[in-house]
Design goal:
It is a single chain. The protein is α/β, with parallel strands linked by helices. Helix 2 packs across helix 8 and helix 5 packs parallel to helix 6. The protein contains 17 helices and 14 strands. It is globular, with a radius of gyration of 26 Å. The strands form three sheets. It has a six-stranded parallel beta sheet with strand order 1-11-10-9-12-13, with helices on both faces. A five-stranded parallel beta sheet has the order 6-5-4-7-8, sandwiched between helices. Helices cover about 45% and strands about 15% of the residues.
């Protein structure tokens, strides 16, 4: 069902050598890049016509227009199951509480008398958000992308999600309803690399989409490849790969909880990673035993859960101690990391690399997926060692404003001239000398 990696007995290797011992899904964005390149350039040259053609080719629908009518958003919200609406509203409310606290404020520093540097925070002007529509429908991803963009003050927000044949070429109605709840009325029935290209280049005409400054949101490998293709032209959040959960647990963990949490991520995708790191062989045995009845009682078994747990990206990793376990999870850099140990908060405080950390038995990853208030758009594939999850900060740019008086400039001119000449850039120093009659002010 799930393999084991035994790292007990010998000292753990460092850095990359340890990472190489850990399970990871194969996700070759570079290979996919060559396949999405012609699609992206086709959208560049043919615009909406190309989007309609790809909707027929990849999604099996013939669209009359790519932009979703506002009436369809209202209808989707009116027809939404009241329980789902209430859950989405609570998810939005909690996400706003957390993300509103992330707002940055302008700050001015007086470097010297008469010399200040102010850092102001300016939101990107326009963002394109992507909501997947493959094996599952993800209105929660709409919430997680839209809320931080809105709280950052982004003025123009558009969203794309793949057209669905069973819904007449519209994105899934729950996606549309979530957009309506959030006040997003610019929605496009477009998926995959072509949706990213639409945002990057823009399309013209009455059904057109103005270009965006940034694209965020999870997607499949084709979305990730398109993001890489356009990096530099647009800002991106991350090249999202298959989802991951790692659980650091000791003998105090409940195997029923651990097994359930591993399965919860495995049901996303056959490439989803589920990793348990433990110093307790007894817990490992109990979790492995618990997997079978829980899997038998759920759905998505043959097409997602079993392939995910049996794949080389998933494993139970045995270590000599929790200290070693901490080294392992830091080397792994999981998208989601659960700490199910005695004194879980203390261990969580020592973790360096994780997209999000879930502390103790009552904070499962599923809570973060929907209603913790945290964001579930997180770095995957080990990128948590250098990248963060989506937040208000993702949509803000820090701009420094330099304001010096004549006296404040005069006081530092000799240093500027010295450094300019040390770098063999005399015109840099001359730009200051010109302000003082071509003489360096006397200190």
């Amino acid at each position: 069902m799930i393999s084991r990696i035994d790292l007990r007995g010998d000292a753990l290797p460092e850095g990359g050598a340890l990472r190489d011992l850990l399970p990871r899904a194969e996700f070759d964005v570079e290979a996919a890049l060559e396949k999405v390149r012609p699609i992206c350039e086709d959208v560049h040259h043919r615009g909406t016509a190309a989007l309609i053609e790809y909707a027929q080719k990849f999604d099996g629908v013939m669209l009359e227009q790519v932009r979703v009518p506002v009436e369809a958003l209202k209808t989707a919200l009116d027809e939404l199951d009241p329980a789902v609406r209430a859950a989405l509203e609570e998810s939005i409310r909690r996400a706003r509480i957390v993300h509103r606290e992330q707002r940055r404020t302008e700050h001015t520093t007086q470097v010297v008398p008469g010399g200040t540097v102010t850092e102001k925070w300016v939101p990107v002007e326009r963002v394109g958000l992507y909501a997947p529509g493959g094996r599952s429908v993800y209105p929660s991803s709409v919430v997680m992308n839209v809320v931080p963009a809105q709280e950052a003050g982004v003025e123009s927000i558009a969203l794309a999600s793949p057209p669905q044949k069973e819904f007449g070429g519209l994105p899934h109605p729950t996606i549309l309803a979530a957009c309506a709840l959030l006040g997003v009325d610019e929605v496009y029935a477009a998926g995959g690399a072509q949706a990213v290209a639409m945002f990057a280049y823009g399309t013209s005409g009455p059904d057109g989409c103005p270009p965006a400054n940034m694209v965020t949101g999870p997607g499949n490998i084709w979305v990730a490849a398109a993001k890489r293709y356009f990096t530099g032209r647009i800002g991106i959040d991350t090249e999202a790969g298959p989802t991951e959960i790692a659980v650091l647990a000791d003998s105090t963990a409940d195997p029923v909880h651990v097994a359930a949490d591993l399965i919860s991520q495995a049901e996303h995708d056959p490439l989803a990673a589920a990793v348990l790191v433990t110093d307790s062989a007894e817990l490992a045995d109990a979790v492995e035993k618990e997997l079978e009845p829980q899997i038998a009682a759920t759905k998505h078994v043959e097409d997602r859960i079993k392939p995910a747990l049996a794949g080389k990206q998933s494993a139970i990793v045995l270590v000599d101690s929790l200290e070693d376990g901490l080294k392992v999870v830091d080397a792994y850099g999981a998208e989601h990391l659960e700490i199910q140990t005695a004194d879980a908060a203390a261990w969580a405080a020592r973790v360096r690399n994780a997209g999000a950390i879930f502390v103790g038995p009552w904070a499962p990853v599923s809570l973060g997926d929907y209603c913790a208030g945290s964001n579930h758009v997180l770095p995957t594939g080990g990128c948590a060692c250098h990248s963060s999850g989506l937040s208000v900060q993702s949509f803000l740019r820090g701009i420094h404003i330099v304001d010096y008086t004549r006296d404040a400039l005069a006081e530092v001119t000799h240093h500027v001239v010295t450094l300019a000449e040390a770098e063999d850039l005399p015109a840099h120093g001359a730009a200051l000398k010109a302000r003082f009659g071509w003489k360096v002010p006397t200190q």
